[in-house]
Design a protein that fits this description.
About 50% of the residues lie in helices and about 10% in strands. The chain has about 350 residues and is α/β, with parallel strands linked by helices. It folds into 2 domains: about 250 residues, Alpha-Beta Barrel (TIM Barrel); about 90 residues, Chorismate mutase (Chorismate Mutase Domain, subunit A, Up-down Bundle). An 8-stranded parallel beta barrel has the order 1-2-3-4-5-6-7-8, surrounded by 5 helices. Helix 2 runs parallel beside helix 3. Bound molecules: phosphoenolpyruvate and manganese (II) ion.
Amino acid sequence: MEITKNNRKWLDSLGLSHPVVIAGPCSAESEEQVLKTAHELKKTDTNIFRAGIWKPRTRPGGFEGVGEKGLPWLQKVREETGFKVTTEVGNADHVEKALKYDVDILWIGARTTVNPFAVQEIADALKGVDKPVLVKNPVNPDLALWLGGVERIKAAGISQLGVIHRGFSSYKSLNYRNKPKWQIAIELKKEFPDLPLILDPSHICGRRDTILDVTQTALDLNYDGFMIETHIDPDNAWSDAKQQITPGRLSEITEELVIRKESSSKETFQQKLDIYRSDLDILDNKLVGLLKNRMDISELIGALKREENVAILQSSRWEEILTSMVDEANKKGLNKEFISEIFKAIHVESIKIQHETK
Ligand code: PEP
Ligand code: MN
């Protein structure tokens, strides 16, 4: 991995190279697993060691983390390897305990960023504390929640702030565990240009074989670093086994990554494609929202016509709509037949809804 200079903000003052590499297991399982992983990671480009001490599981019954007893293991990692150490905090009690054991960097998980009360509780517990804090994106694709999380922590006086992009969940996703939706991270970066932006490809991919590609896309987008879940025995990990990689594989990945200079404006095909696709996703969502609004109004019109005993189909009004929309499309350079077909389909549905209106 070629190291180039970049805008590293407070990461610089911690002496962290660009891109910053955060690695370590999804969960701390035992002292031996934590220390063995950390020592293996010494042979890689890692500079911050991660391990989940408290694990917020979506459903009960899974491994929920070893809790406070794992914090001395992180201290040992720091002593023996010199890594900075980081863990996730989900409430004020976690913050208090992480501070008691002097964890270097705290992060707020995706299931916490969704909840303003929880983020505020953490922010209050962090008042007067001088530690870096990283805010993961919320599980759902809501930029405002992510911005709000950052703002709450910022307002608590934390100056060493960063964000982690770990993707967004959806009901069924074919290629990703959590879709990257790069556009949201780019929008966040526009609002907070000075915040280091770190990619978590492990939770985006949910599998091992696509981590390299997704990380490369992030580096092409000038991200400041990445957090990759790494385990000495990934297949037998107590959480997120499918996506964890060995320290050896991490070395191969960082060797293969191409770090682009900030001044380079070259965009890769995949990067452009991903941005265009997320633009399309946003527009498609808007289209569906607009159609819903339109059908809601058809329903109101249906009720009104029924009350007044007026016929549903008013041909002249319909002709007017069609002509004016086809004209509009023509002015914008859109294909007339295409727009005409779409409006015919909308009209059919609208009449159906008016018929069904009680
Ligand atoms: C994790 O980093 O192990 C984790 C729980 O991540 P997220 O909050 O992104 O799901
Ligand atoms: Mn995990």
